[in-house]
Amino acid sequence: xxxxxxxxxxxxxxxxxxxxxxxxxxxxxxxxxxxxxxxxxxxxxxxxxxxxxxxxxxxxxxxxxxxxxxxxxxxxxxxxxxxxxxxxxxxxxxxxxxxxxxxxxxxxxxxxxxxxxxxxxxxxxxxxxxxxxxxxxxxxxxxxxxxxxxxxxxxxxxxxxxxxxxxxxxxxxxxxxxxxxxxxxxxxxxxxxxxxxxxxxxxxxxxxxxxxxxxxxxxxxxxxxxxxxxxxxxxxxxxxxxxxxxxxxxxxxxxxxxxxxxxxxxxxxxxxxxxx
Length: 276
Ligand SMILES: C[S@@+](CC[C@H](N)C(=O)[O-])C[C@H]1O[C@@H](n2cnc3c(N)ncnc32)[C@H](O)[C@@H]1O
Ligand SMILES: *[C@@H]1O[C@H](CO)[C@@H](O)[C@H](O)[C@H]1NC(C)=O
Ligand SMILES: *[C@@H]1O[C@H](CO)[C@@H](O)[C@H](O)[C@H]1NC(C)=O
Fold this sequence. Notes:
Layout: H1 3-15, H2 47-59, H3 67-80, H4 96-110, E1 117-121, H5 127-135, E2 140-145, H6 148-163, E3 168-169, E4 175-176, E5 179-184, E6 201-205, H7 211-222, E7 229-233, E8 249-259, E9 262-271
Parallel strand pairs: 1-2, 1-6, 2-5, 6-7
Antiparallel strand pairs: 3-4, 7-9, 8-9
Bound molecules: S-adenosylmethionine and 2-acetamido-2-deoxy-beta-D-glucopyranose (2 copies).
Protein backbone atom coordinates (compact mmCIF):
# COMPACT_ATOMS: atom_id res chain seq x y z
CA UNK A 1 0.00 0.00 0.00
CA UNK A 2 1.31 3.48 -0.81
CA UNK A 3 1.91 6.07 1.87
CA UNK A 4 -1.01 8.12 0.57
CA UNK A 5 -3.21 5.04 0.65
CA UNK A 6 -2.40 4.41 4.28
CA UNK A 7 -2.96 8.03 5.22
CA UNK A 8 -6.37 7.86 3.54
CA UNK A 9 -7.19 4.64 5.26
CA UNK A 10 -6.42 6.10 8.62
CA UNK A 11 -8.12 9.46 8.07
CA UNK A 12 -11.25 7.74 6.89
CA UNK A 13 -11.23 5.46 9.90
CA UNK A 14 -10.68 8.40 12.24
CA UNK A 15 -13.49 10.33 10.65
CA UNK A 16 -15.90 7.71 11.99
CA UNK A 17 -14.54 6.92 15.44
CA UNK A 18 -17.90 5.93 16.83
CA UNK A 19 -18.98 3.82 13.92
CA UNK A 20 -19.84 0.43 15.34
CA UNK A 21 -18.10 -1.41 12.57
CA UNK A 22 -16.18 -0.97 9.40
CA UNK A 23 -15.04 -3.23 6.65
CA UNK A 24 -12.25 -2.84 4.17
CA UNK A 25 -12.82 -2.76 0.46
CA UNK A 26 -9.93 -2.30 -1.91
CA UNK A 27 -12.00 -1.47 -4.97
CA UNK A 28 -14.21 1.38 -3.82
CA UNK A 29 -13.77 4.54 -5.93
CA UNK A 30 -14.43 6.72 -2.86
CA UNK A 31 -11.10 8.51 -2.41
CA UNK A 32 -8.88 9.86 -5.13
CA UNK A 33 -5.15 10.14 -5.55
CA UNK A 34 -4.25 6.88 -3.88
CA UNK A 35 -3.77 3.34 -4.98
CA UNK A 36 -6.11 2.01 -2.31
CA UNK A 37 -9.43 3.36 -1.19
CA UNK A 38 -12.00 2.37 1.33
CA UNK A 39 -15.63 1.95 1.98
CA UNK A 40 -17.09 1.74 5.45
CA UNK A 41 -20.06 -0.51 5.97
CA UNK A 42 -21.83 -1.99 8.97
CA UNK A 43 -21.24 -5.71 8.57
CA UNK A 44 -19.97 -6.86 11.96
CA UNK A 45 -18.18 -5.54 15.01
CA UNK A 46 -15.13 -7.74 14.65
CA UNK A 47 -13.97 -6.28 11.33
CA UNK A 48 -12.74 -3.04 12.87
CA UNK A 49 -9.54 -4.53 14.37
CA UNK A 50 -9.02 -6.26 11.01
CA UNK A 51 -8.94 -2.87 9.30
CA UNK A 52 -6.35 -1.67 11.78
CA UNK A 53 -4.29 -4.81 11.38
CA UNK A 54 -4.13 -4.17 7.64
CA UNK A 55 -2.74 -0.69 8.30
CA UNK A 56 -0.28 -2.01 10.91
CA UNK A 57 0.95 -4.81 8.65
CA UNK A 58 1.56 -2.42 5.79
CA UNK A 59 3.95 -0.34 7.95
CA UNK A 60 5.71 -3.16 9.79
CA UNK A 61 5.93 -5.59 6.89
CA UNK A 62 9.64 -6.47 6.71
CA UNK A 63 11.32 -9.18 8.78
CA UNK A 64 13.33 -6.62 10.78
CA UNK A 65 10.21 -5.03 12.26
CA UNK A 66 8.65 -8.33 13.36
CA UNK A 67 8.30 -9.44 16.97
CA UNK A 68 10.60 -12.37 16.17
CA UNK A 69 13.35 -9.93 15.22
CA UNK A 70 12.86 -7.99 18.48
CA UNK A 71 13.02 -11.22 20.46
CA UNK A 72 16.33 -12.11 18.76
CA UNK A 73 17.73 -8.65 19.47
CA UNK A 74 16.78 -9.03 23.14
CA UNK A 75 18.29 -12.52 23.41
CA UNK A 76 21.53 -11.40 21.75
CA UNK A 77 21.80 -8.42 24.06
CA UNK A 78 21.36 -10.58 27.13
CA UNK A 79 23.77 -13.29 25.95
CA UNK A 80 26.49 -11.36 24.13
CA UNK A 81 26.68 -8.05 25.93
CA UNK A 82 26.44 -9.80 29.27
CA UNK A 83 23.47 -7.95 30.69
CA UNK A 84 22.32 -9.22 34.05
CA UNK A 85 20.37 -12.31 33.09
CA UNK A 86 17.37 -11.55 35.24
CA UNK A 87 14.00 -12.95 34.25
CA UNK A 88 12.61 -9.39 34.12
CA UNK A 89 14.48 -8.79 30.85
CA UNK A 90 12.84 -11.72 29.04
CA UNK A 91 11.14 -10.79 25.79
CA UNK A 92 7.68 -11.39 24.36
CA UNK A 93 5.11 -9.12 22.73
CA UNK A 94 1.41 -8.58 22.88
CA UNK A 95 0.12 -9.00 19.32
CA UNK A 96 -1.25 -5.91 17.54
CA UNK A 97 -4.72 -7.44 17.08
CA UNK A 98 -4.93 -7.85 20.86
CA UNK A 99 -3.95 -4.17 21.34
CA UNK A 100 -6.69 -3.12 18.88
CA UNK A 101 -9.36 -5.13 20.72
CA UNK A 102 -8.29 -3.69 24.09
CA UNK A 103 -8.28 -0.14 22.70
CA UNK A 104 -11.77 -0.72 21.25
CA UNK A 105 -12.99 -1.76 24.70
CA UNK A 106 -11.48 1.32 26.34
CA UNK A 107 -13.03 3.63 23.73
CA UNK A 108 -16.42 2.01 23.21
CA UNK A 109 -17.20 0.83 26.76
CA UNK A 110 -15.45 3.40 28.95
CA UNK A 111 -14.77 6.36 26.67
CA UNK A 112 -11.47 8.00 25.80
CA UNK A 113 -10.87 11.67 25.03
CA UNK A 114 -9.20 12.66 21.76
CA UNK A 115 -5.51 13.31 22.17
CA UNK A 116 -4.01 12.09 25.43
CA UNK A 117 -0.77 10.31 26.20
CA UNK A 118 -0.04 6.59 25.95
CA UNK A 119 2.90 4.88 27.70
CA UNK A 120 4.47 1.45 27.51
CA UNK A 121 6.71 0.52 30.47
CA UNK A 122 9.25 -1.91 29.01
CA UNK A 123 8.42 -0.94 25.42
CA UNK A 124 10.73 -3.31 23.51
CA UNK A 125 10.57 -2.58 19.77
CA UNK A 126 7.68 -0.15 20.30
CA UNK A 127 5.08 -2.12 18.37
CA UNK A 128 2.49 -1.85 21.18
CA UNK A 129 2.64 1.93 20.96
CA UNK A 130 2.33 1.99 17.18
CA UNK A 131 -0.69 -0.31 17.40
CA UNK A 132 -2.28 1.83 20.14
CA UNK A 133 -1.76 4.96 18.00
CA UNK A 134 -3.51 3.37 15.01
CA UNK A 135 -6.49 2.60 17.25
CA UNK A 136 -6.72 6.04 18.88
CA UNK A 137 -5.51 9.54 18.08
CA UNK A 138 -3.13 10.03 21.00
CA UNK A 139 -1.03 13.21 20.81
CA UNK A 140 2.03 11.67 22.47
CA UNK A 141 3.31 8.13 22.78
CA UNK A 142 6.14 7.29 25.20
CA UNK A 143 8.12 4.11 25.64
CA UNK A 144 10.78 3.24 28.22
CA UNK A 145 13.12 0.34 27.45
CA UNK A 146 16.19 -0.86 29.34
CA UNK A 147 17.99 -2.78 26.56
CA UNK A 148 19.74 -0.35 24.22
CA UNK A 149 19.55 -2.49 21.08
CA UNK A 150 15.78 -2.92 21.57
CA UNK A 151 15.49 0.82 22.09
CA UNK A 152 17.33 1.29 18.78
CA UNK A 153 14.91 -1.13 17.10
CA UNK A 154 12.06 1.06 18.36
CA UNK A 155 13.74 4.11 16.80
CA UNK A 156 13.98 2.26 13.46
CA UNK A 157 10.29 1.34 13.75
CA UNK A 158 9.53 5.01 14.41
CA UNK A 159 11.23 5.79 11.06
CA UNK A 160 9.04 3.19 9.37
CA UNK A 161 5.95 4.86 10.85
CA UNK A 162 7.08 8.32 9.75
CA UNK A 163 7.91 7.14 6.22
CA UNK A 164 4.27 6.07 5.91
CA UNK A 165 3.05 9.51 6.91
CA UNK A 166 0.19 8.31 9.12
CA UNK A 167 -2.06 11.25 9.94
CA UNK A 168 -4.86 11.69 12.44
CA UNK A 169 -7.26 14.53 11.69
CA UNK A 170 -8.49 16.63 14.60
CA UNK A 171 -12.22 17.16 14.62
CA UNK A 172 -12.82 20.26 12.51
CA UNK A 173 -9.16 21.21 12.80
CA UNK A 174 -5.91 20.65 10.97
CA UNK A 175 -4.41 17.25 10.43
CA UNK A 176 -2.25 16.25 13.39
CA UNK A 177 0.59 13.81 13.88
CA UNK A 178 1.28 11.78 16.98
CA UNK A 179 4.74 12.26 18.50
CA UNK A 180 6.76 9.19 19.54
CA UNK A 181 9.24 9.56 22.37
CA UNK A 182 11.34 6.46 23.06
CA UNK A 183 13.60 6.59 26.11
CA UNK A 184 16.44 4.20 26.85
CA UNK A 185 16.04 3.90 30.57
CA UNK A 186 15.22 1.90 33.66
CA UNK A 187 11.70 1.89 35.08
CA UNK A 188 13.13 1.57 38.59
CA UNK A 189 15.03 4.86 38.13
CA UNK A 190 12.04 7.03 37.29
CA UNK A 191 12.57 9.89 39.70
CA UNK A 192 9.63 10.86 41.90
CA UNK A 193 7.95 7.69 40.61
CA UNK A 194 5.63 9.88 38.56
CA UNK A 195 5.38 10.04 34.78
CA UNK A 196 5.44 13.39 33.00
CA UNK A 197 3.40 14.26 31.08
CA UNK A 198 0.75 12.22 32.85
CA UNK A 199 -0.49 9.15 30.95
CA UNK A 200 -4.08 8.61 29.82
CA UNK A 201 -3.41 4.95 29.01
CA UNK A 202 -0.46 2.93 30.34
CA UNK A 203 0.54 -0.51 29.03
CA UNK A 204 2.80 -2.81 31.02
CA UNK A 205 3.71 -6.34 29.92
CA UNK A 206 4.76 -7.40 33.42
CA UNK A 207 4.62 -11.17 32.90
CA UNK A 208 8.30 -11.68 33.83
CA UNK A 209 8.84 -8.62 36.02
CA UNK A 210 10.31 -9.51 39.41
CA UNK A 211 8.75 -8.21 42.65
CA UNK A 212 10.98 -5.13 43.00
CA UNK A 213 10.34 -4.04 39.42
CA UNK A 214 6.62 -4.70 39.75
CA UNK A 215 6.51 -2.67 42.97
CA UNK A 216 7.91 0.30 41.01
CA UNK A 217 5.18 -0.08 38.39
CA UNK A 218 2.63 -0.20 41.24
CA UNK A 219 3.93 3.04 42.79
CA UNK A 220 4.08 4.79 39.40
CA UNK A 221 0.47 3.69 38.71
CA UNK A 222 -0.80 4.86 42.10
CA UNK A 223 0.71 8.28 41.31
CA UNK A 224 -1.23 8.59 38.04
CA UNK A 225 -4.22 10.88 37.65
CA UNK A 226 -7.73 9.64 38.48
CA UNK A 227 -9.23 8.10 35.35
CA UNK A 228 -5.93 6.78 33.97
CA UNK A 229 -6.35 3.39 32.26
CA UNK A 230 -3.85 0.57 32.86
CA UNK A 231 -3.46 -2.38 30.52
CA UNK A 232 -1.62 -4.97 32.63
CA UNK A 233 -0.44 -8.16 31.01
CA UNK A 234 -0.50 -11.29 33.23
CA UNK A 235 0.06 -9.37 36.51
CA UNK A 236 -2.68 -6.98 37.67
CA UNK A 237 -1.91 -3.90 39.74
CA UNK A 238 -2.88 -4.39 43.38
CA UNK A 239 -6.28 -2.97 44.33
CA UNK A 240 -5.52 -3.30 48.07
CA UNK A 241 -2.12 -3.09 49.73
CA UNK A 242 -0.54 -5.45 52.25
CA UNK A 243 -2.43 -3.84 55.12
CA UNK A 244 -5.77 -4.23 53.34
CA UNK A 245 -6.13 -0.55 52.41
CA UNK A 246 -7.41 0.37 48.96
CA UNK A 247 -4.79 1.58 46.50
CA UNK A 248 -7.21 3.63 44.40
CA UNK A 249 -6.94 1.24 41.46
CA UNK A 250 -9.96 -0.74 40.25
CA UNK A 251 -10.19 -3.66 37.83
CA UNK A 252 -12.64 -3.04 34.98
CA UNK A 253 -12.29 -6.38 33.17
CA UNK A 254 -9.91 -9.22 32.52
CA UNK A 255 -9.77 -11.45 29.46
CA UNK A 256 -7.49 -13.84 27.65
CA UNK A 257 -5.52 -12.35 24.77
CA UNK A 258 -2.91 -13.58 22.29
CA UNK A 259 0.74 -12.81 22.87
CA UNK A 260 3.71 -13.76 20.69
CA UNK A 261 4.31 -16.60 23.15
CA UNK A 262 0.76 -17.88 23.81
CA UNK A 263 -2.37 -16.68 25.60
CA UNK A 264 -2.46 -14.83 28.91
CA UNK A 265 -4.83 -12.69 30.95
CA UNK A 266 -4.88 -8.97 30.27
CA UNK A 267 -6.30 -6.82 33.07
CA UNK A 268 -7.93 -3.53 32.16
CA UNK A 269 -7.66 -1.35 35.26
CA UNK A 270 -8.27 2.29 36.12
CA UNK A 271 -7.25 4.81 38.74
CA UNK A 272 -10.44 5.62 40.64
CA UNK A 273 -11.90 9.10 40.82
CA UNK A 274 -12.07 8.98 44.63
CA UNK A 275 -10.15 6.90 47.16
CA UNK A 276 -13.14 4.98 48.51
C1 LIG B 1 7.70 -8.83 27.85
S1 LIG B 1 8.60 -7.49 27.07
C2 LIG B 1 7.25 -6.49 26.49
C3 LIG B 1 7.47 -5.77 25.16
C4 LIG B 1 6.30 -4.90 24.73
N1 LIG B 1 5.98 -3.91 25.75
C5 LIG B 1 5.05 -5.71 24.46
O1 LIG B 1 4.23 -5.86 25.37
O2 LIG B 1 4.86 -6.20 23.33
C6 LIG B 1 9.16 -6.59 28.53
C7 LIG B 1 10.19 -5.52 28.22
O3 LIG B 1 10.51 -4.81 29.41
C8 LIG B 1 11.91 -4.50 29.38
N2 LIG B 1 12.37 -4.22 30.75
C9 LIG B 1 12.61 -5.10 31.75
N3 LIG B 1 13.01 -4.47 32.86
C10 LIG B 1 13.04 -3.14 32.57
C11 LIG B 1 13.38 -1.98 33.32
N4 LIG B 1 13.79 -2.05 34.59
N5 LIG B 1 13.30 -0.76 32.71
C12 LIG B 1 12.89 -0.69 31.42
N6 LIG B 1 12.55 -1.76 30.66
C13 LIG B 1 12.63 -2.97 31.23
C14 LIG B 1 12.52 -5.74 28.76
O4 LIG B 1 13.81 -5.51 28.23
C15 LIG B 1 11.48 -6.09 27.67
O5 LIG B 1 11.79 -5.42 26.47
C1 LIG C 1 15.80 -10.31 7.08
O1 LIG C 1 15.96 -10.86 5.77
C2 LIG C 1 17.22 -10.64 5.21
C3 LIG C 1 17.19 -11.12 3.77
O2 LIG C 1 16.38 -12.24 3.60
C4 LIG C 1 18.28 -11.36 6.05
O3 LIG C 1 19.59 -11.16 5.51
C5 LIG C 1 18.23 -10.83 7.47
O4 LIG C 1 19.13 -11.54 8.30
C6 LIG C 1 16.81 -10.94 8.03
N1 LIG C 1 16.77 -10.26 9.32
C7 LIG C 1 16.16 -10.75 10.38
C8 LIG C 1 16.19 -9.90 11.61
O5 LIG C 1 15.56 -11.82 10.39
C1 LIG D 1 -1.54 0.98 52.64
O1 LIG D 1 -2.37 2.04 52.19
C2 LIG D 1 -2.58 3.05 53.18
C3 LIG D 1 -3.63 4.01 52.64
O2 LIG D 1 -3.21 4.54 51.40
C4 LIG D 1 -1.26 3.71 53.52
O3 LIG D 1 -1.44 4.70 54.49
C5 LIG D 1 -0.29 2.66 54.02
O4 LIG D 1 1.01 3.25 54.20
C6 LIG D 1 -0.17 1.51 53.01
N1 LIG D 1 0.63 0.46 53.60
C7 LIG D 1 1.59 -0.18 52.92
C8 LIG D 1 2.33 -1.25 53.66
O5 LIG D 1 1.84 0.06 51.75
